[in-house]
């Protein structure tokens, strides 16, 4: 037969694959609802147990006719894991599965799973096969899309594939490839594969894959190099419509493969065959097939609806299977992607296990157990870790979106292929609506809500100018005017949209302070001067991990040290109070606070720009075999003309957890003299996906690790910042090193070589705000005594320090009098607000939680009221304010220093 490739259209393919290091026998693969008012689009089942195992179904949602999204909670040895499963009904003619491939349906054009799904019109999709990230971007395993063999299985044992025949029968098997090319004179030569990157086959004992071999490259392969780094010089033959049109001896043809043909890429003995039996103008034919390794059964690719490669088998006959090849390089507790089918061959399960702030992920063994518990009869492992991505289309929407955050947040890996779920249904009539909009509002926040229609096959339906009326079950909590909804007070109300006899509802919760974990107003800093305007858009992070953007003027603001106003998202300074050199804009939402600190220098000071660094920078590592260099050198690009700290590293010779350190000032580090609430710097990224950290040694000798980036996922310069408040750093401290981390878990996903650079390290440091009334010195207080010594001078106080359950409590007013700062008491809220430098703390009597610069924190002890006086935990407050506390047990004396 003549090889051909059908161009991708709306229901075609598109894909994504990422890097995952696989140890493949001696080689290292780096692979990286009208009338249905009672219908609920998402059916929450309230935690019904899916089986005797620990899988609990949380709910399910219809995606399209024949496909549903099911959500599970699963208990693992590490904690709670969440898994999302798309179940496809192969008996339903309105849905089908196919492989998505790169951009434009081609290899060597990696794309995110969401990008492939959107391009091909998929209702849902997951990432697919493993691939070698150092190569062009083609799958390791075989791939068939709509009967077209796009890639052949690699000669690697134990690598399973998932397939569905055109009559709707699923299978999980190991496949081999057999094929030949025949010249016009009848001579033939064996084909080694189709659209393969260079690799080392396991059956050849180390011989390169393309040595003495013939491979076919179709228009599914976009790159002009076929393949790169093959260690062989090719003789290539261009075939169009079954006729040889060009032959390039000992050189690659510098042409793209046409839609009506292919390139026969040969070397050695295969090239001799070309020289002896092929000529321009002559006809040439190909014949190929797949074979099931276990049974020997031949499989014509044209009889397959789809096939995608994977890794080890996980489930066989409804039980956990032994692994078909080593899984040491893909072990650990990770996000996971898998495929399987039911015992009756009716259902296919697309499985994606989350690993993020809500889920701990699963080991492969746990994944096996989970799969069997939800009904998988036979299944295999796909590429996981940071590649694990699931996208699904909500009812009424026209395209799929990320269903949950990946291991690296909302960023999706660019991968080579994936599995798409496609609707084959005709256009139906309007069945119902869904409401779109936020399910969470803050008090005073308004949100726009939309109504989307879906048809009898649960596919999007354009409702056009349909008249819709909106109402709220409790206007005192949520008010509704048209599609604009406003949070009035805390509570929950049901928002209802109605058109004719069709209705749709959504529960909307208005959050109070108890539902917020942090409030952030812009950068939190600004310049204290008349006429200054500071952008302070407010972001609230809820306790369940949502981020909600609200207008700053939805908060109640109070100003200390200046007069001003907040309108929209801007803070404007009208005038500065006499003698004030630091100002505070405190915004409160239902009692929860955020603060913007204004100083003459904008609240941030340059700590190191490397222009005149008079100390040594050196490279060190923790692992044998890791090499590199660290130096202060001339910057490039936007940093041309400046000096930067550059760190080069090569970890290819190391193993395990590997660090590459840029040490400052030998082993001594550079001093951070005063307390700092945040650190920021410009970083030149290498998109290695390694971590970037800083290591600080504080005045007590404790080591503090600061995560600057959990994944270096960018190229070029980028500004980073990290919060230092709440880390209990005792000052003066020393920044000892900046370093790149390649941890052992998920190591297959990160590059082992690279180069990063750092410039303009700045600190937000309350102790460095010039002349703002902060003082230094020593204070001593004794338990039970209504007096204190300030810099050797004794003074009376009206409330004595006490101890309770091993903690010392003091009236904070006197500490602030001695060291600068102020305290405010809100009797109705039983709240003490403490301000010093750039630190603002809200503490509530009887509550161990407190708010520090807009972030909810936890403490071991709570403020208390004694004899009408409010006392606060000394060590907690003092250390957050940049003070050091020492306790003398014998004399029951507390010494506080700044």
TrEMBL record:
Domain of life: Bacteria
Domain called BIG2: residue spans: 429-509
InterPro entries, per database record: Big_2, Cu_amine_oxidase-like_N, Invasin/intimin_cell_adhesion, Mao_N_sf, NAGPA
GO molecular-function term, one example from the UniProt record: hydrolase activity, acting on glycosyl bonds
Keyword vocabulary terms for this entry: Glycosidase, Hydrolase
PANTHER family cross-referenced by the UniProt entry: N-ACETYLGLUCOSAMINE-1-PHOSPHODIESTER ALPHA-N-ACETYLGLUCOSAMINIDASE
Protein known as: Phosphodiester glycosidase family protein
